[in-house]
Amino acid sequence: MATSYLELSQVGIEFDSRHGKFRALDDINLSLDRGEFVSLIGHSGCGKSTVLNIVAGLHEATEGGVILEGKEVNRPGPDRAVVFQNHSLLPWLTVYENVELAVNRVFKGLKSKSERRDWILHNLRRVNMEHALDKLPSEISGGMKQRVGIARCLSMEPKVLLMDEPFGALDALTRAQLQDSLMAIQAELGNTVIMITHDVDEAVLLSDRIIMMSNGPAATISKILPVNLDRPRDRLALAEDREFVRLRHAVLEFLYGNKSEPVTPAATALTDDAALDKRESITTEKKYRVTSGMRPLTAMA
Ligand SMILES: Nc1ncnc2c1ncn2[C@@H]1O[C@H](COP(=O)(O)OP(=O)(O)OP(=O)(O)O)[C@@H](O)[C@H]1O
Ligand SMILES: [Mg+2]
């Protein structure tokens, strides 16, 4: 019955650790539509990267699986490109060559050499990096490296873009610029995106839905918050928007409030308001850490 574009079905994972088995995730169920942008949010160590790595095929789920366009995925592939917090450019290759590597991997034999060159330049232009083609990663700033990393991923025309705190290491201004670029690119290309973030404003600004995870061990999806703000979105206008403020508050409440509630697999597959009501009405006795204030979540492991 999997009709969604991307489906995580009953995903669980147990790691072998020095102290025996460690169950990081339990019964993760999530359906994404094509072109949907979802954020994963939750406390440090809850299992967000593990979810992303399972979708990327870098970790193998112990139970359940991931289905993309009707096919199970359990190994890495160019149909799922990953942007990490710290760029993963090869330091001995130039900006151009880093993107070329990815383009050759996917398009050699499909595009001619000059078509590939045009395509590389096109993708670097998308992120405003065509002026630095011949620079090495060590010669450009952190924000520029992330731009190249995004260009490299886009150049593979992945079905799904997986982003693990892509802007986490950047200053606020650069982060805002890259968020705007990402929104513009996604509006143009209709990418399906899963992004991990610790930044509540970023999650609300960019997402169609915010997936909020419970704390581990055996972390799961606690709540799903639909973000029904019109696009294109303007950060300045939204700062005063009542719905934006309400959504922002709902995420903060989840993260810093004193209780949250896991939901059933059936509820996480639904996307309408009725489903949200259903999710929010399901309660368990499970308690989570109580914190207050606006500390960075990374300080709360
Ligand atoms: N390869 C591994 N072996 C053993 N345990 C692991 C492994 N990878 C992750 N874990 C554990 O799984 C849990 C989830 O880790 P994960 O990196 O997914 O968290 P996270 O939510 O991404 O955290 P952060 O926000 O700090 O990046 C943690 O308790 C972590 O120690
Ligand atoms: Mg992580």
CATH superfamily annotation: P-loop containing nucleotide triphosphate hydrolases
Strands in their spatial order, largest beta sheet: 6-7-8-3-9-10
Radius of gyration: 19 Å
The CATH topology, please?
Rossmann fold
* Unique bound compounds: adenosine-5'-triphosphate, magnesium ion
CATH class wording: Alpha Beta
What does this structure look like?
With 301 residues, this protein is of the alpha/beta class. The protein has one domain: P-loop containing nucleotide triphosphate hydrolases (Rossmann fold, 3-Layer(aba) Sandwich), CATH 3.40.50.300. 36% of the residues lie in helices and 21% in strands. It contains ten helices and ten strands. The chain has helices spanning 48-56, 95-107, 113-126, 142-155, 172-189, 200-206, 235-239, 242-256, 265-268, 273-281, and strands at residues 6-17, 20-32, 37-41, 63-68, 71-72, 80-83, 160-164, 192-196, 209-213, 221-226. The strands form two sheets. A six-stranded mixed sheet has the order 6-7-8-3-9-10, sandwiched between helices. Helix 2 (95-107) crosses helix 3, helix 3 crosses helix 4 (142-155) and helix 6 (200-206) crosses helix 8. The two termini are 38 Å apart. Residues 48-49, 164 line the site of magnesium ion (MG). Adenosine-5'-triphosphate (ATP) binds next to strand 1, strand 2 and helix 1.
